[in-house]
Amino acid sequence: MQQKIIILDFGSQTTQLIGRRVRELDTFCEILPYNKFPKDDPSVIGVILSGSPFSVYDTEAFKIDLSEIRGKYPVLGICYGAQFMSYTLGGNVEPAGTREYGRANLASFDKENPLFRGFEENSQVWMSHGDTITKLPANFKVIASTDKVENAAYQAEGEQLWGVQFHPEVFHSVQGTLLLENFVVGICGSRQDWSAASFVDSTVAQLKEQLGNDRVILGLSGGVDSSVAAVLLNKAIGSNLTCIFVDHGMLRKNEFRNVLHDYECLGLNVIGVDASEKFFKDLEGVTDPEQKRKIIGRDFVEVFDAEARKITDARWLAQGTIYPDRIESLNITGKTIKSHHNVGGLPEEMNLRLCEPLQWLFKDEVRRVGRQMGMPEHLITRHPFPGPGLAVRILGDITPEKVRVLQDADDIFIQGLRDWGLYDQVWQAGVILLPVKSVGVMGDERTYERAVALRAVTSTDAMTADWAHLPYDFMAKVSNDIINKVKGVNRVCYDISSKPPSTIEWE
Ligand code: XMP
């Protein structure tokens, strides 16, 4: 049975990071809302309580019944999690004289305690709290202190229950991963058998059992997630999987052909649908960004649906949904900020059940799984690309001619990044076609042509991004190539805005 650690989310911004760290220890974990502990799940080997934006004494603070987990599993409380257990079991938590944010050092700690096995003296930890545990419950003992915080870590005597005031999951807690390893492996007894290989084996077996001889449809986008999902399903059910790849006419240069070829080489059963004419016709003269997106979304569903209905005995719709798409993060009102994204409006009467084999994976794990299955590296490391494609990079109305200009400029930029070894250093890159013309001179001729902007950003999750500091020599070469080779463009700019306040795409 697959062992798992449960992380109860009390709303901290670092809860997902705890999950990442546990997975890095080759241990499966699930992040669940604080009040959704799965009773009677025999695969649970330990529980971690996250931090929270609340103070334990706030009336609206998130509370749980500790008897569900105490004495039944090893428990580790982090920050609010530690304060909550201490407070609820008879201790005292008060606002700290000075809020403590940033680096601190464990001036003293209990070397014999299994949580600190292998720890070095004065280890740096990361603090981020406004409250402090001023008194521990009677049977709790202090196992670590900093200069400012006496009860920086504790254990309930004779119990498998620990709390730490600092954040072991963040990078700046130098031995944080060791602390989590001591808990997850040393204390909870993880076998550390969660790996890309074990994931592929167990998921293929599960999919075989779940899908039997049913037919499955999957929408391919050319991106990493849907491609990995397709290869995984292909391994499980082979020709019972039909993939549909729609060309809306605003993909990158030659992308439809190249990606279709890649998919065929992977042995996938793919139907490529060139619907570009329909999209261009429906988009004619439309300039409003939201309107453009709506038309593309609607047309996509129509085209996909028409194709999918031809497979009359299909029972399932597979999607490449990944874990960050699903995690229900809590905001301070307790409402979910992000809920499970759904099938994007496919007609209900199709009556298809949903199959999401990557729903527990983080992005880098999806890539590891893809590599494990031997997928080509260029498919696995592809930059993210928006669903509506180049449509969100053409400001103003969309015409096939503008798309061609943009495709050519984009191709020079992206190929240049690859040639200069810069492609993997940026999160995402592309070119934007601006709705302005400016004067230039080519040979003896005056020109009056379009301007384009290059956009390249560094990021880890697209929520925030910085403009990539690309070498001047590279930008000079790309600019030169675009102006010389792409007819219709005589000026190239570089977008040096970060997100926020700007966004990655211009529309
Ligand atoms: P922004 O522009 O909001 O983009 O900073 C963040 C990330 O999302 C991508 N993006 C989209 N992806 N459909 C998609 O599938 C869309 O409509 C869409 N709009 C933006 C964008 O490329 C970036 O990776």
Task: Explain what the structure shows.
The strands form four sheets. An eight-stranded mixed beta sheet has the order 2-1-3-4-10-9-8-6. Strands 13-12-11-14-15 form a five-stranded parallel beta sheet, sandwiched between helices. With 507 residues, it is of the alpha/beta class. It is built from 13 helices and 19 strands. The protein has helices at residues 15-24, 80-88, 176-187, 196-211, 224-237, 255-265, 276-283, 289-308, 323-326, 363-372, 377-380, 400-419, 472-485, and strands at 4-9, 29-33, 44-49, 75-78, 92-105, 108-109, 124-135, 140-145, 153-156, 161-164, 215-220, 241-247, 270-274, 314-318, 353-355, 428-442, 445-458, 466-467, 489-494. The radius of gyration is 27 Å and the shape is globular. Mean pLDDT is 92; it is low at 329-343. Helix 4 (196-211) packs across helix 5 (224-237) and helix 12 runs antiparallel to helix 13. The chain binds xanthosine-5'-monophosphate (XMP). Xanthosine-5'-monophosphate binds at residues 293, 384, 386-388, 392, 428, 462, 499, 503-505.
Note the main attributes of this structure.
507 residues, globular, single chain, 25% strand, alpha/beta, binds xanthosine-5'-monophosphate, 8-stranded mixed beta sheet
- Give the rounded overall mean pLDDT: 92
Rg (C-alpha, Å)? 27 Å
Bound molecules: xanthosine-5'-monophosphate
Q: What is the molecular shape?
A: globular
How many alpha or pi helices?
A: 13
The percent range for helix content is 25-40%
Strand element count: 19
Low-confidence regions: 329-343
Helix/strand-derived category reads alpha/beta
The biggest sheet, with number of strands, parallel, antiparallel or mixed sense and barrel status, is: 8 strands, mixed
Oligomer state of the chains in this structure: single chain
Ends distance: 47 Å
